[in-house]
Amino acid sequence: MPRILAAMRSYNQYCGLAKALDVVGDRWILLVVRELLAHDGARYTDLRDGLPGIATNMLAGRLRDMERAGLVIREDAPPPVATTLFRLTPRGRQLEPVIRALGAWAGPLMGEWTPGQEFRSRWLALPVELYLTDGAPDAPPVALQLRTGDEPMVVEVAGGMVRARPGTAAHAAAELAGPPHVVMGLLAGRLSLAAARAKGLHFRGALRAVRRLRPRS
Q1: In what order do the strands lie in the sheet with 174-177?
Q2: Rounded to two decimals, what is the model's pTM?
């Protein structure tokens, strides 16, 4: 049976929600899960970079608690990388639908991005995959290059599926660069190209490739 995290007090209720929150309801826990879902094996430094604002001793403590709860394992990276990697256990990966549901619920809370708010490019993967779908599933695959934040991202649209990952596309149909809320606004159809450009978007390529994306109903 997973243990209650040492950093938290138990709600001491015979209720599934209360028992779940005994394990994952503490500050930073679900954001650690978010980062581990984005990395197939994350170094401590990867996690610290993806969790701006967390103290290093708090991150170390949360990882220990998550290990005790059966959510995380640590393993030695193969040579020549001499470091410890953290991975979610199968039990930890069962939290992915929870992360996605909370991300979808938070849509109305996003609003405008305020300069000074922390942002990592890979955080775009969640809204891209949650909110967008392929409007032309029988058309050939296309890739869009996004440049917003700390690293480039690729959105791949093919066969009715939309996926986002860090990296670059060899033959991108379009490239979008600018503030994250503007890039996402154009992808989701909330902003026209002219309005997005007025808000700082740099765009080149085929707009029809972007318009292939449709908001999920």
Answers
A1: 161-166, 153-158, 142-147, 174-177, 202-205
A2: 0.85
